[in-house]
Write a structure and sequence with these properties.
Layout lengths: L10 H6 L1 H9 L3 H4 L5 E4 L9 H12 L6 H4 L5 H12 L2 E4 L6 H15 L3 E18 L12 E17 L2 H10 L30 H9 L5 H11 L3 H5 L6 E2 L4 E4 L2 E3 L2 E3 L8 E4 L2 H11 L22 H14 L31 H7 L7 H14 L4 H8 L16 H22 L1
Parallel strand pairs: 2-3
Antiparallel strand pairs: 1-4, 3-4, 5-6, 6-9, 7-8
Length: 439
């Protein structure tokens, strides 16, 4: 590939036309774009044979089987052994997909490791048992002129699918073009393209008031209550909260080192290099954490929030779905049982599984945006409350542990520790005042 000719197309002119510049540089590879995937699925069956006529043509004309009987349809290839050999030869993880866990979240740690190594290719393979369409063969009840004739009928069967997760080379090409300063920002040019009649908008994140946060917290039991307090007092991501260990805390200096994450049962690095940092601990929050340490499960690793069933951190998604969101639905009155705000729904009898139904479906519907509140809501709320303190933008940016706001702001250096403590202390005061008042 030739380097760009800056005499013909200066960088300033190219920056004004990013899509045209990208096309000029990589025009010969644009066909590859349409065949470049981040995931390839190998089905456990021939998905192209969806009709009986296709099956007959394939086996009789292609395979050369005159009689399509049960023995023919039940044949299996050794493609799974090929997948296992490929994974073993290349040192790629090969595991069964866990139920109720997004596949993308499960393999994300492997993707980050490949990104840090600067490599591309297959970084993980997930096996999943899924349903697919197949056929069964039956001999006709009455004789026909063709002794090889069989009746084929559709049926559902279970097959092992293999999901190949791939880090392709297109992002590397774009990074190369960005280093040549042919774009005015680091965005992919395809993000600038607008589709006609497409008006999809990202929903505005929900931000809680102090009263709403207090109402949700009052309905939570331990350890979820303390986890939510940590989320709201520090603005941590839930993966960082789940990965906390007692050695991360310096209670003498009132500091916390955020240095790891816990995603889909795997311990990994934090999201970005800017996320690895010290955050100040307010004295009131230290008291709560020390009180929790007396009741917390003791593990060899020293997890702060460990499950007694696994001795590992809790799965935040289950806590969100079973505890936080039902509590958030209680921010509105229940139209069915009349339960007021901040009160669980009333029931005359137990549900068939013997567990109490915390929230009626009518209340969930009425709750609207509250029914979709999650862990990240507390991070959005922390940012909003931080804005109300009037703290400088640089202080807010470092407390959120985001990437630099803009390159020119780096000349101001890091925010003073006293400024960060002051701003964080104001937010903690908003969080814990209602808690102490209710104690």
């Amino acid at each position: 590939m030739d380097l760009p000719n800056h005499h013909v197309s200066p960088a300033r002119s190219a920056a004004a036309r990013p899509v045209e510049t990208f096309t000029r540089l990589f025009g010969s590879l644009l066909l590859f774009v349409y065949h470049c995937f981040d995931r390839v699925v190998i089905n456990g069956y021939l998905s192209g044979l969806s009709r009986p006529g296709q099956v007959v043509h394939f086996f009789q004309k292609v395979v050369g089987e005159p009689v399509i009987g049960k023995e023919v349809l039940s044949r299996r290839t050794n493609y799974q052994k090929s997948v296992e050999s490929f994974a073993s030869n290349h040192g790629i993880g090969l595991e069964w997909a866990e139920p109720k866990v997004r596949k993308e979240d499960y393999v994300r740690p492997a993707l980050r490791r490949m990104e840090r190594a600067g490599r591309h290719g297959v970084y993980f393979i997930l096996k999943s048992m899924e349903q697919g369409q197949t056929f069964r063969s039956a001999v006709p009840r009455f004789a026909t002129g063709d002794p090889n004739y069989r009746i084929l009928a559709r049926q559902r069967s279970r097959f092992t699918h293999s999901y190949f997760y791939i880090r392709d080379v297109m992002d590397l090409m774009f990074e190369c073009a960005a280093r040549w300063e042919l774009f005015n920002d680091r965005r992919n040019p395809i993000q600038i393209v607008r589709i006609k009649d497409s008006t999809k908008r990202r929903p505005r994140p929900t931000v809680l008031t102090v009263t709403e946060y207090d109402a949700i917290l009052a309905l939570l039991k331990e350890p979820y209550r303390t986890m939510v307090i940590v989320a709201q007092c520090l603005g941590l991501r839930v993966s960082e909260i789940a990965a906390l260990q007692w050695d991360d805390f310096d209670f003498e200096k009132n500091l916390l080192l955020v240095q790891r994450s816990f995603v889909s049962g795997h311990v990994d690095d934090v999201k970005t290099e800017y996320s690895r940092d010290y955050v100040p601990l307010h004295e009131s929050l230290v008291e709560i954490l020390l009180a929790w340490s007396k009741d917390a499960l003791t593990t060899k690793v020293g997890w702060v929030f460990a499950s007694a069933l696994t001795n590992k951190p809790y799965h935040p998604t289950e806590i969100q779905n079973r505890h936080i969101r039902p509590a958030a639905c209680c921010l509105v009155e229940c139209p069915k049982c009349g339960a007021g705000v901040g009160v669980w729904c009333r029931q005359d009898q137990l549900t068939p599984n013997g567990k109490r139904l915390q929230v009626h479906e009518e209340r969930r519907t009425l709750a609207g945006q509250y029914a979709s509140i999650g862990w990240h809501t507390f991070r959005h709320t922390y940012r909003s409350w931080l804005d109300e303190t009037g703290a400088p933008m640089k202080v807010r940016q470092e407390l959120m542990r985001h990437a630099p706001i803009q390159t020119t702001m780096n000349v101001y250096g890091q925010a003073m520790a006293s400024s960060k403590r002051e701003a964080n202390g104001k937010v903690v005061g908003m969080v814990l005042k209602p808690v102490r008042a209710s104690a």
